[in-house]
Amino acid sequence: MTPRRTTVSWNGANARRMARQGLTDPLTAGPDGIVAVMPAAQAQILSAAELSVGLRGRGLTRADVRAALWTDRTLVKTFGPRGTVHLVAAADLPMWTGALSALPAGLGGQPEGVRMSPRETETVLAAIGDALTGAELTVDELTDAVVERAGAWAGEEVMPAFGTMWPRWRQVTHLASHRGLLCFGPDRGRKVTYTRPDVTPLDGPAGVAALVRRYLYAYGPAAPQDFARWLAAPNRWAAEVFDRAAAAGEAEEVVHEDGTAAWVVAGDTAFPEEPVRGVRLLPYFDAFVIASQPRARLYPGAAYERALAGGQAGNFPVLLVDGVVAGVWHQRRSGRRLAVTVEPLSPLTGGRLRELDEQVARVGEVGEARPELTLGAVTVGPHA
Q: Are the beta carbons of 266 and 284 closer than 8 angstroms?
């Protein structure tokens, strides 16, 4: 007899995700512990990542996040899911490098004549790892080091990027990161530096299995295509990964209210009975809005048009009311002053306004600034 599958409501799933993210009650962990449960914080805008982490903690500020990243080194800035810059817990780096280096390899986005062959790719990766061992190098310095080790062809400026041309080797920067050969070092003035982390990647299947468990704990119930979208991986590969997790007794199938199947960590089938209440502000590219599915439920009605840029979550900072997107917001810093503009999509009650005041105050605490709230239209467009 087939066991009866647990039926999960949208409200229950959303409430559990928010609770585990520290968005219902703040988490007591430090920055690395908070990032571990996210389980990564997108950081192409580092100040947004600092705010994402800080808002999930109890009494944390951006200084605490920076200390974890650059002083204590319990956080690592590297290329994570979707090839984008993320903060991950240093203790999780073996999992991340093992899992990401096991993703199916494609041809890449470069045209013939620019794209490197598999042999050239491995030559450049070896050069990057060697050059960054015990060093912190700017892009220009790393280019010189790669050319010295691999040959002049690796430094040919053939890749159009941001109005200029990049050297050929840079097309594998994210791959070097996934292999554990490269991560970000502290900025040198206005220049980014790279270094080599002290990490031994997990075996690929073990890394993927561990990442599936972490993802499902944070964002389950989820379907294979949700996991694929989160990683920018093929749907078929993700389906096979979920099948292996289920066969190993590590994942369990549940069913949404509409009858569609999804998966959770095996045995992790308890969900809150009450929906989320309250007001929250989340910054650009917050992990919760990027990973939570289905987006049509998280961005209901007018929020889908106003707060999603062409269907891409994270390009607007969002106002959450009772667990769903109900507006957008923007902050502008001038010295210690922080001007916060919030655009609700419908009028807020007096109680909601008081909660918003508290959220704005918390944004100021994390950012070590004096916030000033204005309700009105946000005229700044989406961040690309």
A: no
